[in-house]
């Protein structure tokens, strides 16, 4: 029996480097799953739109959110668009997960034991708050050091407030790729150590490829 199509849905960005980085992640996932049709779509900014992309696929589909936490896009956009498709399911978002802690830690300066501020995009959906706090706890356990949260939108504390409260902290950006939120973090953390997004233009981290495939296969089994 053919396996479901993997529809990888990200937010979308007008940043050329960010868009390319997401495309490279999808390409790497496709290379690791030669018996699965892998397609990319977006909820905003870029084409194809996720709704149109889903409609163009015949047969079973697993929608994998290339999003780091639950929120409006996952629960409204993605779950909403599969309601009329008995053969389509939505996998869990990428975070929180210990593999993301590994990828975040790899971007930190060597031999630095300074406390961290984990800068997340933020959402008004309360489920995103639980996920952000969960990722901070996972990173705290992985590093064995202080990790405080800051939000780039929708919630408090915002990044400038967190930097004022924790002046000795480095800033780890909890973002997949370059775009609006990374540009905002760069402005707000000017003069501070700020890590690059998880997809920073170098080789796609194995942890992220593995995570996308794990989310797909878990949803595939539960169909």
Describe the structure using short key phrases:
single chain, 223 residues, alpha/beta, Rossmann fold, 2 domains, 3-stranded parallel beta sheet, 8 helices, 7 strands
Summarize the structure.
The chain is of the alpha/beta class and about 220 residues long. It has helices at about 15-30, 50-55, 70-80, 100-105, 125-145, 160-165, 180-190, 205-220, and strands spanning about 5-10, 40, 60-65, 90, 115-120, 145-150, 170-175. The chain folds into 2 domains: about 5-95 and about 200-220, 3-Layer(aba) Sandwich (Rossmann fold), CATH 3.40.50.1400; about 100-190.
Explain this structure to me?
- This protein is α/β, with parallel strands linked by helices and 223 residues long.
- The protein folds into two domains: 111 residues, Rossmann fold (3-Layer(aba) Sandwich); 91 residues.
- 42% of the residues lie in helices and 15% in strands.
- It contains eight helices and seven strands.
- Strands 2-1-3-4 form a four-stranded parallel sheet, with helices on both faces. It has a three-stranded parallel sheet with strand order 6-5-7, with helices on both faces.
- Helix 1 links the parallel strand 1 and strand 2.
- The radius of gyration is 17 Å and the shape is globular.
- It starts with a strand and ends with a helix.
- The model has no long low-confidence stretch (mean pLDDT 93).
């Amino acid at each position: 029996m053919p396996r479901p199509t993997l529809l990888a849905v990200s937010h979308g960005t007008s940043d050329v480097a960010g868009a390319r980085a997401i495309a490279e992640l999808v390409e790497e996932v496709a290379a690791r799953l030669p018996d699965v049709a892998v397609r990319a779509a977006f909820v905003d900014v870029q084409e194809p739109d996720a709704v149109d992309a889903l409609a163009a696929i015949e047969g079973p589909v697993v929608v994998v959110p290339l999003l780091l936490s639950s929120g409006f896009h996952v629960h409204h956009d993605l779950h909403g668009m599969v309601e009329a498709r008995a053969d389509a399911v939505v996998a869990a978002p990428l975070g929180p997960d210990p593999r993301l802690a590994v990828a975040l830690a790899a971007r930190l300066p060597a031999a630095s034991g300074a406390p961290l501020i984990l800068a997340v995009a933020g959402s008004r959906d309360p489920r995103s708050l639980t996920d952000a706090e969960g990722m901070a706890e996972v990173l705290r356990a992985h590093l064995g050091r202080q990790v405080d949260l800051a939000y780039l939108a929708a919630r408090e504390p915002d990044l400038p407030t967190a930097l004022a409260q924790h002046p000795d902290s480095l800033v780890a950006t909890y973002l997949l790729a370059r775009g609006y939120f990374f540009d905002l973090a760069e402005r707000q953390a000017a003069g501070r150590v700020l890590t690059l997004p998880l997809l920073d233009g170098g080789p796609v981290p194995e942890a992220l490829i593995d995570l996308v495939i794990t989310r797909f296969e878990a949803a595939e089994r539960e169909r």
